[in-house]
Design a protein that fits this description.
The complex is a heterodimer of chains A (about 140) and B (about 140). Chain A is mainly alpha-helical and about 140 residues long. Helix content of chain A is about 70%, strand content about 0%. Chain A contains six helices and no strands. In chain A, helix 2 crosses helix 3 and helix 5 crosses helix 6. By secondary structure, chain B is mainly alpha-helical. Chain B has one domain. Helices cover about 65% and strands about 0% of the residues of chain B. In chain B, helix 2 packs across helix 4. The longest helix of chain B has 27 residues. The termini of chain B are far apart. The relative contact order of chain B is 0.11. The chains are: A mainly alpha (about 140), B mainly alpha (about 140). At the A-B interface, helix 1, helix 2, helix 3, helix 4 and helix 5 of A face helix 1, helix 2, helix 3, helix 4 and helix 5 of B.
């Protein structure tokens, strides 16, 4: 049975459960919605000054766990583009966009969708459609990525 | 102190999940968005897996208080504004271009190499510029 399911899907499901568990701890423990863009953005624009330490502790966990896990896995490659213009444009779009929309894949996608928030569902539909069209345009038509 | 500890644990679980699920691999994210190419369904398993504990957590908030005290966040107003739609479209464009979103961007900094730092720096710059962009939008066309 397990042989017929691609390993990537099982790792995806297992990793996804851990992501949801992280969100559950943050919600039930601290009473906060786990949104990566909100936690980061609040530090950048100063709107999160009142709970800066909590934000930094969360981000430290996100950064450090892969440091510990990395040596246990072989062939870890992120396949990121080395095109600096693409990286900068993409980063700017993600930064401005997630703050304007008040959420990203974790806040709107995981946390919003799971409480059936209309805003979360609408945001998720729009960023997936925009992402899909971007890949079609820049990969298949322009050949940039 | 409990608050910091729980935040670290939550972040650690989130980071471990992003790493193990393959969501810091930009080719898997772009592969999921690439419906006209060699479509990769992994991301659907990740989101599906993440929604299960999270939905249970939302159910458990009923009639309870957070461990550290205070109140649970009230449901957002089901209001769909221009900022939500335009912001999400802009985010989707960046997500598709690089295959990275904020969580995986932080999780991959230690092993992804310089491209991840360039993306991360640009993303922080974008976040710093966002209040300005929001003000510009609001003065051009009022949100309401």
């Amino acid at each position: 049975m397990l042989n017929t399911i691609p390993t990537d899907w099982l790792y995806g499901l297992g990793g996804g459960l851990l992501i949801g568990l992280g969100g559950a701890v943050f919600l039930l423990g601290n009473g906060r919605v786990m949104g990566a863009s909100g936690i980061l953005g609040g530090l950048v624009d100063g709107s999160g000054k009142s709970n800066m330490a909590e934000r930094l502790a969360f981000l430290a966990g996100v950064f450090l766990m892969p440091v510990l896990l990395y040596p246990m896995f072989s062939d870890v490659d992120t396949h990121a583009t080395t095109n600096i213009a693409v990286l900068i444009a993409a980063g700017l779009c993600v930064g401005v966009g997630t703050r304007l929309a008040n959420g990203c894949t974790s806040g709107h996608g995981v946390c919003g969708f799971s409480r059936l928030s209309l805003r979360g569902i609408v945001a998720t539909v729009f960023y997936i459609m925009a992402g899909g069209l971007t890949v079609v345009l820049f990969r298949h038509l322009l050949g940039v990525i | 102190m409990t608050r910091m500890f729980l935040a670290l644990i939550a972040g650690g679980l989130f980071g471990a999940g992003l790493f193990i699920s393959g969501m810091t691999d930009t080719s898997k994210v772009q592969g999921w968005l690439d419906v006209f190419g060699n479509w990769d369904p992994t991301l659907a398993f990740v989101i599906g897996g993440a929604i299960i504990p999270m939905a249970i957590a939302w159910l458990l908030t009923n009639g309870r208080k957070p461990v550290v005290g205070g109140e649970f966040p009230s449901p957002p107003e089901p209001k769909l504004g221009r900022n939500l739609v335009m912001g999400s479209i802009l985010f989707g464009i960046g997500w598709g271009l690089a295959g990275l979103c904020p969580g995986p961007s932080v999780a991959s900094l230690s092993y992804g190499g310089w491209p991840h730092w360039v993306f991360f720096a640009a993303m922080l710059a974008g976040m710093a510029l966002a209040p300005l962009a929001r003000a510009q939008l609001d003065s051009a066309v009022p949100a309401e």
